[in-house]
Amino acid sequence: MPDFWPSCCTFKLPIMTRFLFFLLVAIFLTACGDPGSTGTRKGDVPVFAVIPKATSHMFWRRVQAGAEAAGQAEEVEIIWDGPAEESDLPKQVALVQQYTAEGVSAILLAPLDSRSLVASVRAARKRGISVIIFDSDLDAEDYESFVATDNLEAGRICGQAMAKGLPEGASVGILRYMEGSASTTAREEGFIQGLSEAPENLKLVELPLFAGPTVESAKMAAQQILDKHPKLAGMFTPNETASEGMLEVLEARGLTEQVRFIGFDANDALVAGIKRGSVYALAMQDPYKMGYLAVETAMKVVKQQPFARRIDTGITLIDADNLDSPEVQKLFAAPAGSGQP
What we know:
alpha/beta, 43% helix
């Protein structure tokens, strides 16, 4: 007789009856589920939590559209959830922990910080949740696949474009984005590499400050750089908000003819800057493709199909000469999500 059987129940059940009783108990316990297992919300449909750096920027809204399109094609439920702005690291950490606790099938994450998300990602994988990192890398490779632009090479292309045609010994500035952001750090280092490879012997100028997560914070940093170095011949910024902030300051100061400005990512304001001649070039990623391939890769992982460990989603340097080309217009035509969960 089992230890938990009430003392009053001392009668003996037939063997078959006892077998059926314990079978029903086992079925019930199985139905309750293992708290460490992953589940689904709609029958057998996998659930993927896609957590970007932010939800408000056009870049991330295009990632959302790509992820949701892949979700429809792969018959996956997509949960789009992230911080409103790229300054809210605690929110992103909390979301990874939340969806780990919920036991989603996969977490697709664009880490705001290359170090601060490592522990949460490891915890998710210990729960049996597949993890795809996109856009920006982690300091530890505790994930299945990395889907992103080759940011080092993209920055290098920008550095080479900056150097071409500038006078010998000209000063070129760089406004870095934020400490801990792996994607933009790679772009910045790539830009410096490209600049150093030029025969013009250009001089790199930078101050120990960062653009920060918003256009307003970028404008403040841009003003400090230009106050300190008013004779710059070139300037590079590594992401959308830093680029938009720098553009506003250059135009406000009437420096767009003096300063060759190359930015990263594209929105309406930056493209209009190309048309006005205020922006020399923009490095344009393919966020729609990034979102789509991240979900597609996660599905391969969940299905235990072969998948690529690293996927480069490509870069296009756009300027006044190719702005209206079919290749560039196709990138602009990519749909954008609502930004809402």
